[in-house]
Specification:
The structure holds two protein chains of two kinds. In chain A, 43% of the residues lie in helices and 13% in strands. Chain A has helices at residues 2-14, 135-141, 157-160, 185-208, 222-231, 251-259, 279-291, 320-326, 384-388, 395-403, 407-412, 423-427, 434-503, 514-544, 556-571, 581-614; strands at residues 38-39, 46-49, 59-60, 67-68, 73-76, 85-86, 91-100, 108-116, 171-176, 212-218, 238-242, 274-278, 297-304, 310-315, 336-339, 346-347, 361-365. Chain A has a six-stranded mixed beta sheet, with helices on one face. In chain A, strands 2-8-7-4 form a four-stranded antiparallel beta sheet, with no helix packed on it. In chain A, strands 11-10-9-12 form a four-stranded parallel beta sheet, sandwiched between helices. Mean pLDDT of chain A is 87; it is low at 1-11 and 508-513. Chain B is of the alpha+beta class. Chain B is extended. The chains are: A alpha/beta, B alpha+beta. The interface between A and B is medium-sized, with 32 and 30 residues.
């Protein structure tokens, strides 16, 4: 057992762990390594697409007409997975509009256009002392740096460096394999700026808390490897030269190559205590922390059918034509441009697109350089694709499922583990564009999943709405019932009071509760008191022989009348007129008038009858 | 033997109570296939009522235009029925669209809000209304009630976000001539 452990330990120290499959396409790297990294003159305009990275579109922070300085933040990261965008030169924001972006769709998207003023004036640079600052705030400040993975994946770097104490990354792997044909930007970067790269690696190592650093370089880049070895001589970093085999530059393949660790398909490298960074990305980290420069440029290999293939340090947003012109212009019979390598890249929709953070290489394509693919023949089930697949998938099965729109089955065969490296298409004797089928199936599955999510949301919202309507209906019904009950109670109360007043018999209501009884007794007492008062007043009035003081009769005629009536009453032996005599008088007059009216009506009716009889 | 029978019977009886399925699982499965547009083009007041009708055999499987041909096929597969083309009486399959309110014209009558089956319209009485695009199912139910005709259906445009890789089209050239 011990021997076995020792043996694996020995292997770990020295070995290269080959992964399954892989291909050897013609390298075509020599063309663009003849010249050093070139500098470009300022272009006439800078077009910065907002979509330059994986994740959310950043939020625009400038307006049209605004003056911006080189390195100024013009769009800030929005949400967790997003990256900032900076002005890559000083000038005026001339437009914020949709323009063609380097994307396989060829569709326009939102871009910020800057008209350079030619001064190339920097905003105040703020280098950071990352070693003595709190690690968390250092990583947080990275959000403003705009740095994304420059190997081509463009995943925001601040997320990969998030040191929340849970990462547990023990090994940092620097990806310098650069396996895809034609691309030489990392090669030249290592040849010329190895010291800066090593300083960048130190920052990444410190921020991750990694104990070990491995730098993986393919053996076709001897100069770069030598340069890196020299730069890392006084450090614990290890330069590991791996055999040239496409796609060794894929993060998981490189991890396998240098460590022998196979990362389970559903796990991330961080979960295995590993983190992989591209050399250009760590260099960007160095520029950001030591010089205070955000991510505004990158090295781009301009190669293929151009007069002087070369690597250039290109500001993001530089139009492709500008780069092509710097490389001596495109040769005759150039048909289009490919962004990325010939294996994984895509055709650019126009020569007018800007260079973005993802653009590691642009190849001018011509029919001689890239022969049009011969017509695809039927699959002969030779399974050469399965032998070539570095992810150990069954490409021929995936092809059949994708071709037949059998997405469920394609998913079962782990379509989403496919890295679209193109090794299967490369070896296919029937020239079937396998990767195109996988890309088609993947985007269809993503669209179906999105539609499903939207349907679930709609179902939830509809259910909620129906439940709400039902609830409101119930509430309304309840309210009605309550109101009806309250009205009924009120009516019952009133009825009982009336009954009480009429009967003046508390005994009747004895059963209906003490409240009613008490109320009735109180009322009765009040009435009795009022009667008492009235009697007393009457008696007092009789004693004094005066009319009650509260009756004021101002009319002389009425006074006279009262006196007359009193005289008449006395003559027949009656008392004086009561208090409310005036009212009675009116009433009597009214009654008299009514009687008169009734008599008249009766007479009229009789007269009418008489007339009827006569006729 | 009888003892075993009783034991198994008791176990089955217990399992029937313990693992009792609430609701009709078939309705839920049909409902999962339906696009949840809640448009009522099928003749039922929503996707769930239509799913219930299919499960009870009161409705055919080809009455859902937003689900399209793929939806009919999935339903045929689930129900073990023959595929049949979409019933033209219920409407035709259209590219996905979302409602759009011409806001200066809107008078704030709330009629569209009451019509929306998924509460995707925001607004109040005598105030301008607007569509929450991300939640609009494109059912078109809000279009008819609008007294000022300020609602239109706008097809969803293709952006780099929702763009899809096309099915590979391979040019077939004759390699030999007769």
């Amino acid at each position: 057992m011990n021997a076995l452990v020792n043996f694996t330990g020995l292997l770990k120290k020295t070995g290269i762990f080959k992964f399954n499959g892989g291909v050897h396409p013609p390298e075509n790297k020599a063309q663009s390594t003849q010249l050093p990294i070139g500098q470009l003159a300022l272009p006439e305009k800078i077009v910065l697409p907002l979509r330059q990275h994986v994740g959310n579109i950043p939020k625009i922070k400038v307006a049209v007409g605004e003056q911006v300085l080189k390195g100024q933040l013009i769009a800030e990261a929005e949400g967790a997975v997003s990256a900032a965008i900076h002005a890559t030169t000083s000038g005026t924001v001339s437009a914020i509009e949709d323009a063609i972006i380097p994307h396989p769709s060829g569709l326009p998207d939102r871009c910020i256009t800057i008209k350079p003023d030619g001064k190339d004036e920097w905003i105040e640079k703020k280098p950071q002392d990352w070693k003595s600052t709190d690690r968390k705030s250092v990583v947080a400040s990275l959000r403003l740096s705009g740095i994304v993975g420059l190997g081509g994946a463009t995943f925001p770097t601040h997320i990969k460096l998030r040191s929340d104490g849970k990462s547990g990354v023990h090994t940092l792997i620097i990806n310098a394999a650069e396996c895809e044909p034609y691309i030489t930007c990392d090669d030249l970067l290592m040849r010329e700026r190895a010291d800066e790269i090593v300083k960048g690696i130190e920052i990444a190592q410190y921020l991750l808390g990694a104990e070990r650093v491995l730098i993986g370089i393919e053996d076709n880049k001897r100069e770069a490897a030598a340069s890196m070895r020299a730069a890392t001589a006084n450090t614990t970093m290890q330069v590991i030269v791996v055999p040239t085999l496409y796609p060794s530059g894929d993060a998981r393949r490189l991890v396998h190559l240098v460590l022998g660790t196979e990362i389970p398909h559903d796990k991330r490298t961080t979960e295995m205590g590993l983190q992989v960074f591209n050399v250009a990305t760590v260099l960007a980290l160095y520029r950001y922390f030591e010089h205070g420069e955000p991510s505004i440029n990158r090295i781009v290999s301009m190669t293929g059918n151009v007069n002087k293939p070369q690597n250039f340090e290109v500001l993001f947003g530089t139009p492709l034509q500008h780069l092509v012109a710097a490389a001596g212009g495109a040769k005759a019979e150039t048909t289009h441009y490919i962004m990325g390598g010939p294996m994984m890249g895509f055709d650019l929709p126009s020569e007018n697109v800007p260079i973005t953070k993802a653009a590691n290489c642009v190849i001018a394509a011509s029919p001689t350089l890239f022969e049009p693919p011969p017509p695809a023949m039927p699959c002969i089930r030779c399974a050469r694709c399965a032998d070539a697949c570095p992810v150990n998938l069954q490409p021929q099965e995936l092809y059949w499922f994708a071709k037949a729109d059998n997405f469920e089955k394609a998913n079962d065969y782990k379509l989403f583990d496919c890295i679209e490296c193109g090794a299967c298409s490369y070896v296919c004797p029937s020239n079937i564009p396998l990767v195109q089928y996988y890309r088609y199936a993947k985007s269809e599955i993503i669209a179906i999943d999105k539609a499903h999510e939207a349907a679930n949301l709609a179902r939830e919202r509809n259910d909620f709405r129906l439940a709400r309507i039902e609830r409101e209906k119930l509430e309304r019904a309840q309210k009605h019932a309550e109101r009806a009950a309250a009205q009924k109670e009120e009516a019952a109360k009133k009825a009982s009071e009336n009954l009480n007043n009429d009967a003046l018999e508390p005994n009747i209501h004895a059963g209906s509760g003490n409240v009613v009884l008490d109320a009735a007794t109180a009322k009765k007492a009040a009435i009795a008191a009022a009667i008492e008062r009235a009697k007393a007043a009457k008696a007092a009035a009789a004693q004094t022989g005066d009319a009650p003081k509260n009756v004021v009769v101002s009319d002389e005629n009425v006074k006279k009348e009262i006196a007359e009536i009193d005289a008449r009453r006395q003559s027949v032996g009656l008392e004086k007129l009561p208090v409310d005599a005036g009212i009675d008088k009116e009433k009597q007059a009214k009654i008299a008038a009514a009687i008169e009216r009734a008599k008249a009506a009766k007479a009229a009716a009789e007269a009418a009858k008489q007339i009827e009889k006569n006729s | 033997m009888i003892g075993l029978a009783l034991l198994l019977g008791a176990a089955l009886g217990y399992a029937a109570l313990k693992f009792k399925v609430e609701g009709d699982p078939l309705i839920a499965r049909i409902d999962a296939i339906l696009p949840q547009t809640q448009c009522g083009q099928c003749g039922f007041p929503g996707c769930k009522p239509y799913a219930t009708a299919i499960a009870e055999g009161r409705a055919d499987i080809n009455q859902c235009p937003p689900g399209g041909d793929a939806g009919v096929r999935a339903l045929a597969d689930l129900m073990g029925m023959e595929y049949k083309p979409l019933n033209a009486e219920n409407g035709v399959e259209k590219p996905k669209a979302v409602a759009f309110i011409d806001e200066p014209v809107c008078i704030g009558c709330t009629l569209c809000i009451q019509a929306c089956p998924v509460d995707a319209i925001l607004g109040a009485a005598k105030h301008m209304h607007t569509i929450i695009t991300s939640e609009c199912t494109g059912c078109e139910l809000c279009v008819a009630p609008c007294p000022v005709d300020c609602i239109t259906m706008v097809p969803i445009a293709e952006t780099p976000d929702n763009w899809k890789w096309r099915y590979p089209v391979i040019p077939i050239k004759p390699t030999f001539t007769l």
